[in-house]
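Hi R.,

Here's the chain you asked about this morning:
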Amino acid sequence: MGKIIGKISLIVEGDNISIDNLDMLIGITHSVYKRKGESASKIMDVLEHDIVQYTENIDEATVDLTIYEFCRKVSKRITEVDKEYICNMRIYIQSDYAQIYWKLRKETIGALHSCNVDCEFSILSWGECN
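And the predicted structure, written out as tokens:
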């Protein structure tokens, strides 16, 4: 495991989601599918809507590239999905470093922008100092 790990996810939320149709529209297989009324985790209440996640892992060497490729993969199809459901991106980075830094190329920012959905960033640093 590297010092920086994470995930990028497209999250789709709505009612009565047809998972097979959604996978076909997005063009990749979902990572997580939770139905309305199920618990999302041990600490959360039951879900008010169906939630589907499409996720790719990020490691220290590929932060920018993974975000770029994932966004390019889903951006052309997300417009149709976003008409019927609520869509957003979530980028989560966890680090063992006290301070972390990475650069997003303008192409990656453009690919993220082309998805045309809200994006949540979450960064967790354990703060190990050398």
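Helices lie at 19-26, 63-84, 106-114.

Let me know if you need anything else.
M.
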